[in-house]
Here is the input.
Amino acid sequence: MNKEESIYCKWARVVIESYFNKTEPKISLGSQFFLQKACNVTLYLSDNSIRGSFGSIFPSKPTLKEEIKSNAISAAFFDSRFNRLKKSELDNARITIDVFEEPERIYNIKDLDPHVYGIIVSSRQCNSVLMPAIYNINRPEDQVHLAMKKAGIPLGTSVIIYRFKVNRYER
Here is the structure.
């Protein structure tokens, strides 16, 4: 892992530490932090169990810096599935950050590769998102069918499909 990859996780860790200390996070960040990108932040305990996760495939903040900050705080302290992160847990926590490329609409299922692209399917009010590289999903058809099932969209229904790439960064 190179420094550019790990800086995302370092920023998330500094943000969480600052939240504990009630201070403003400070770290020198590169230009990639000032692009508008969506992300998901996930915290894992030393036994690899998830400790918190929060994010979106569409950006809600003007910069990736703010997106990571907001999602890191939400994952650590406001994921309703877990108690708030304890300061003692942070030192051994592993952080992953998935940075999402902007989704692009596709018109042919042949433009999908379930190992490379995540997908969004929608039909009327039903939507579903699947990340790339899901175990046992090897064909585009299987990926689309699983996303439709997840959204409650009957097979055979016309859907709009978007694909997106995810770049994962870990500590």
User: Anything to note?
Assistant: The two ends are 9 Å apart (CA to CA). The CA atoms of residues 62 and 154 lie 36 Å apart. The longest helix spans residues 3-21.
